[in-house]
UniProtKB/TrEMBL annotation:
This is SET domain-containing protein SmydA-8-like. InterPro entries: SET_dom, SET_dom_sf, SET_SmydA-8. The lineage of its organism: Eukaryota, Metazoa, Ecdysozoa, Arthropoda, Hexapoda. One of its GO terms (molecular function) is S-adenosylmethionine-dependent methyltransferase activity. Residues 7-248 form the SET domain. Gene3D superfamilies: 1.10.220.160, 6.10.140.2220, SET domain. It comes from the Eukaryota. It comes from Sitophilus oryzae (Rice weevil).
Length: 501
């Protein structure tokens, strides 16, 4: 079946163009695959190689244009050679040395817009049909500081020193807007972030609970087919059902998601999750009431950021503005430990977890974010590998996984990457814990067999999700590992039961 059969484009006054399924879709069905129109460094990028997009120290420069690359193998990659390299070398625009190559490098702001503009000239048809019609929100962006920033760092730079004055100011601003509103992040094989303009993927409307799954397969070989996205149904989608992706981090609370969408995508999200005081029963925005101890504090009108927040049991009330401050403070605390790994990372996150346990609903977004990080650390951090963990920590890891999955089943249903990873993280502790219990005579052989089967079933679900991920990415590699582990477990199941004691 051709991809045109799987979705079609419709239009309405609220979202503009959007996509609907043109037939019933089941989880995992490939809706389409596409190569980007262009890809390149993100806005606010640090210095990266202009061929493979890995970070560089800027000591090695392209022999033709003198902008940063890893070496001769990267300067000849088409994504650089056929784009900015020509422009910079013809106009003799040199890269200005930077003190710290890991800082944001303003000179890089122009790279991806140049690539879009040059691709427009090479592929006029795709530009006209798929890209020129994209939303740029120029009118909303004009009064914002970003417009002036782009005028100075991109528009004037391209039309002046880069001698690209064949592109009008309006067109360059529109390209900047198209990128800001429509580009998706992807990771290079070394896991560095770039942005890609996928015109079909950008047709999907936003919903804070998405029903599609997209995975970008990036090989770093520097041509356009290098970064192909595969879009699948994450859950059952009936014929005529709208296809939704999520433009935000799904584990943020409503106030934060809506603010992000307002600021960067220029619309007020009113999806069912945002409209519901309880976030579809997850309570990812709710606080525990400090006055009555029985109720939870929820927004009276979640689509109004400044509404009153009330306790469900007593007359306690507060204000959306105050809640936003509370969320910002907690987010800040969590951000501070973002890169702290190992024992320290575990201790610091557990401390924050304990601190907010009596304040936030157990499934609150920030408790969920902490859970997700702790799950990754327990079982991997030094001194905390799965074989090292005592039962009490195995139990902690299982509890964290089950609680996280309860939330993910609602906000990331079906074939979502984070569900796959969490299921994978859960299967190991179940198996390990059951073996210990059996060895201590705390459970019978039949119970052990049952627990082992539960673990294998969970691993199977992880395999079904993660083997859809490209093997160029860590999740795809995890999928391969999970598949091997699953095959071995199935083959040796009886022997494992017999020899575990
Ligand atoms: C990536 S584009 C999606 C395609 C776009 N509708 C079009 O016609 O080109 C994102 C823009 O679509 C609109 N949009 C997407 N989802 C929306 C939603 N749930 N509510 C309102 N507007 C939405 C907003 O204007 C947003 O900036």
């Amino acid at each position: 079946m051709s991809e045109q059969d799987l979705f079609k484009i419709e239009t309405n006054n609220t979202v503009g163009r959007y996509s609907v399924a043109s037939q019933d879709l089941k989880p995992g069905d490939v809706i389409f695959k596409e190569a980007p129109f262009a890809y390149g460094p993100k806005s606010d990028s640090a210095c990266v190689c202009l061929g493979c997009h890995n970070p560089v120290d800027c000591a090695t420069l392209c022999s033709k244009c003198s902008w940063p690359v890893c070496g001769p193998q990267c300067e000849v990659l088409s994504v650089h050679k056929d784009n900015e390299c020509d422009v910079f070398s013809n106009a003799k625009v040199k890269f200005q040395a930077v003190e710290d190559p890991t800082d944001v490098c303003l000179q890089y702001e122009c790279i991806t817009p140049i690539r879009v503009l040059l691709e427009k000239e090479r592929d006029q048809k795709r530009w006209e049909e798929e890209v020129s019609v994209m939303e740029s929100h120029n009118e909303q962006r004009k009064p914002k500081p970003i417009w002036e920033f782009n005028q100075h760092n991109i528009v004037e730079y391209l039309r002046g020193p880069c001698k690209l004055d064949r592109f009008s100011e309006d067109l360059i601003h529109t390209v900047c807007g198209i990128l800001e509103v429509n580009a998706f992040e992807a990771r290079t094989p070394n896991c560095y972030m770039i942005r890609c303009l996928f015109p079909k993927l950008a047709l999907m409307s936003h919903n804070c609970v998405s029903n599609i799954h997209h995975a970008v397969d990036c090989h770093g070989n520097g041509n356009l087919k290098d970064c192909v996205v595969t879009v699948r149904a994450a859950i059952h989608i009936p014929k005529g059902g709208e296809l939704y992706s999520s433009y935000t981090y799904s584990i943020w609370p409503t106030l934060v998601r809506r603010e992000f969408l307002r600021e960067s995508k220029f619309f007020e999200c009113a999806c069912p999750r945002c409209s519901d005081k309880t976030e579809l029963g997850t309570h990812m925005s709710s606080l525990k009431c400090q006055r009555c101890d029985n109720g939870v504090v929820v927004a009276s009108d979640p689509l109004n950021d400044l509404c009153e927040w009330n306790c469900t049991h007593c007359d306690y009330k507060t204000h959306g503005g105050a809640m936003r401050k509370v969320f910002a403070a907690i987010q800040n605390e969590i951000d501070q430990v973002e890169y702290v790994g190992g024992h320290e990372g575990i201790q610091q996150r557990e401390t924050i977890f304990r601190k907010y346990k009596s304040v936030l609903h157990p499934k609150h977004a920030y408790m969920t974010i902490l859970r997700s990080a702790l799950i990754q650390l327990y079982g991997k951090a030094e001194g905390y590998t799965l074989g090292d963990l005592p039962d009490v920590i195995l139990e902690r890891k299982m509890e964290l996984c089950y609680q996280l999955l309860e939330v993910l089943d609602v906000i990331e249903p079906g074939l979502s990457r984070i569900r796959g990873i969490t299921l994978y993280e859960l299967h190991g502790p179940i198996m390990m814990h059951a073996r210990h219990q059996y060895q201590y005579d705390a459970i019978s052989k039949d119970d052990f067999r049952q627990k082992l089967k539960e673990s294998v079933d969970i691993l199977k679900q992880a395999v079904e999700i993660l083997t859809n991920e490209p093997v160029s990415q860590p999740e795809g590699q995890l999928g391969q590992m999970a598949q091997t582990a699953y095959d071995q477990l199935i083959e040796n199941f009886d022997m494992l039961v017999e020899t575990a004691y």
